[in-house]
Specification:
Chain A has about 350 residues and is an alpha/beta fold. Chain A contains twelve helices and 14 strands. In chain A, a hairpin with a 2-residue loop joins strand 1 and strand 2 (about 25-35). Chain A is elongated, with a radius of gyration of 25 Å. Chain B is mostly helical. Classes of the chains: A alpha/beta (about 350), B mainly alpha (about 260). The interface between A and B is large, with 46 and 36 residues. The complex binds adenosine-5'-triphosphate (ATP) and magnesium ion.
Amino acid sequence: MSELQSTSPMIEARALTRHFTSRKQTVEAVRGLDLTVERGELVALLGPNGAGKSTTLRMLTTLIPPTSGTATVAGYDVGRDPREVRRRIGYIGQGNGAGHNQRARDELVSQGLAYGLDRNTARDRAVELAASLGLAELADRKVSTLSGGQRRRLDIAMGLIHGPELLFLDEPSTGLDPQNRANLQEHVVALRERFGTTVVLTTHYLDEADSLAERVVVVDHGTVVADDTPDRLKAVHASDRVVLGFRDHADAACAVRRVATAHPRAAVRHDGTHVYVEMGGGTFAVPALLADLAATGTPTVSVEVARPTLDDVFLNLTGRSLREGTGTDQSTPSETEEVVAA
Amino acid sequence: MSTLTLTRPERVGHPLRDTAIVLGRELKPVLRDPFSVVFSMIQPLFFLALFAPLLSGVTGLGAGSSLQWFVPGIVVMSCLFGASMTGSNLLMEMQTGSHERTLVSPLSRSSLLLGRALKEIVPVVVQAVIVVAVVAPTSFEVHPLGILVGLLMLSVFCVGLGSLSYALALAAKGQDWIFWTVQQTFLFPVLLLAGMLLPIDGGPEWLRTLSKANPLTYIVDAMRGLFAGTYDVGQLLAGTVAALVVCALGLAVGLRSMRAAD
Ligand SMILES: Nc1ncnc2c1ncn2[C@@H]1O[C@H](COP(=O)(O)OP(=O)(O)OP(=O)(O)O)[C@@H](O)[C@H]1O
Ligand SMILES: [Mg+2]
């Protein structure tokens, strides 16, 4: 590997664009996406259904050519040197990678051989990965007889078998139970420690992006709409929710005016004996707020501060929720009852 | 090198090694469940049991017994069915995501086709051996050298046909109905016009002309000669050329489709 290649970014995509034409209709799946990923980074691509995440990965893994724009992956141009790119990356697609009439172990070994492992190394790695992904007992079963989650684990094992420099995972944890999701995260972390692997994954699980990735790239309508650490994204794009409880309705009604005056930029409302405040930096503002309320004769009896989640960030950025089924309807029935203007 | 990987780059992407890996992968299900090949033999065995007896009164079957005439045709037929349907496996892999995985791997596009197409030789040999074993105790005369040469020729043909079947699966882009419609539309005319089940010689002029345009006719004729132990150079040459033409054409189309696969 040349000096240039080992210091240049692992991924450099410029104005990456991909259109699909079906039945005379053109879908702009990815529109001018820019993305730079340094060596060793762990990046999560987050976006609603149809945002263009898979299409982006498919371009970066040489599966489909971009309509326009360029991408350099592991030091090589995806259009000019696809084979050089392929031998340096691993890819766990959104579908199932194992052939249905194959045995699980055979697929693992074949995959290892395909990536240049010798037969013994491939066998050893197959045993090692099957054991650590809970597939040891299933290794001799036909893939078609495995459950959805078991197949997904096999996909992951296949993607890890050659310890690639750069690993793409398209919704790796879909269909996994919580224990296996945790197990997957451990594998991704271990892979980085052992091989220094750069990881790019897409996910719908916000907690996964939050706990695993140092960097979250939010994709919507085929472009990057935000790109930062989970904490910074939350700080900038979503506010803390503070819930203050009072002795009675009258106290809460007094307090709501007090809070609104002290924090003119916060969204404040009250409902029964509770006051709801949405504000940036809520965790720091609360102690002073409590002292002030106690001093003015409306002491709080309970307090709750909720940090924003990536879902809040998401809702804020795209107008949609990532949580299945909820859509944009985030309101609770009580919210509409008594909104008190300051 | 900043990253430690298990991959030995110098081994990756060697065309022969790649083809061997793909072929090895394709053969694994057969090795694990040898009975799957035996099950695919049920159909030709039914033809032998229930159709061959009807041929006893038919003229134009040559000098030997009617089985001597019929067996080579039935071997070709079972291979024709198998090789033309083989693309359906790829179709399935295109639907599940398994094909996509191999496209991202460093295996060369050519090996993805060649390894698969070469697999077609295995059912040719296994099925022929079973059919011959079944009929050996009857009036059928076994000429091992002739059978060997015949199977070699048939293998060449099946590699080409299998390759075409894979090209069809790729062209169908994972849509079953396109694949099966084209496969069936092609299969039966080719089968019937090659004179596999009944001799063509007694048929009308136009049918005989069409039959002469079918490369499989020359292979079936050559196989009949070889299985009977009569080595007619002209017939042998025609069969070999037909098999090679189908093989070359099939591989050319198949390789083109696989290289263009996205
Ligand atoms: N082969 C294709 N032909 C036509 N349209 C396509 C094709 N592939 C993707 N699209 C369209 O491009 C858009 C982006 O799709 P993509 O699969 O990249 O989304 P995604 O972000 O991965 O979504 P999900 O979270 O549902 O997996 C969608 O509108 C999709 O319908
Ligand atoms: Mg997707």
